Amino acid sequence: MTTMIRKSVLGIAGLAFAGGLAAGPLNHHDATPVTATTPVAAVQADKPDAGKLIPHGVQGTQSRIDLNDEQSANVKAIIAATKKAGLPERAAVISIATSLQESKLENLGHLGDRNDHDSLGLFQQRPSSGWGTPEQITDPEYATLAFLKGLKQVDGWQDMPLTDAAQTVQVSAYPDAYAQWEQQAADLVTQHWNS
User: Fold this and answer.
1) Domain harbouring 30, CATH code
2) Segments forming the whole domain that contains residue 24
3) Which of 61, 163, 168, 183 fits as disulfide partner to 178, beta carbons 3.0 to 4.6 Å?
C-alpha cells in the first residue's frame, strides 16, 4: 500500500513538473553566484546543527539573493509548516532551496504569457496535476505541506543530497539546479528555525 501511495504521489509530482517546468519564467531571475567556499553562518547553541543541515556539503557553485519582506515571510511560513509536519530542519532546508529555485521564494500567481502551464505558488505546483486548487497552492502553508508530503514518500530522503531529494519530488527538467541554493537555505533555517 505504501509503495502504491508513493508511486501515486511521485506520479502526480512528475506530471506537475514534466516538460521543463523549471525552464519556465522562473529561471530568468538574476542570482549572484558565490563560491562554494562562502563561510557558513556561525552556529550558536540554540541554532540547528550545521552538519545536519548540509550533511553532504554543498554541491557546486552556490547562488544567493537578497530577500525582501515577502520572501522572508515565506521562509518563516515554510519553516512553520515543516515544524507542523513534524519534520526536522533538513526538510526545511530542502523545501527552502526548492522554493528558491522554483520561485525565488515569491508566492507567484498566474503570470500570463510568462506562466509555465498552470504553475503557481512557492513551489510552482500545478492544479491540473493534482497539487490542489489555485487558492490552496498559493497558500504557503498548504504548498509547503504538499511538497513535504511528496518528500516523505521518497525513501531515504534524509540521507540524499539535496538536489536528489528535491528532484525526486519536483521532477524538473533541470535536476541539478536545486543544489545552488543549499547554503542560503541552510543559513535561512539557522537564522529562523528558533525565531
Assistant:
1) 1.10.530
2) 2-192
3) 163
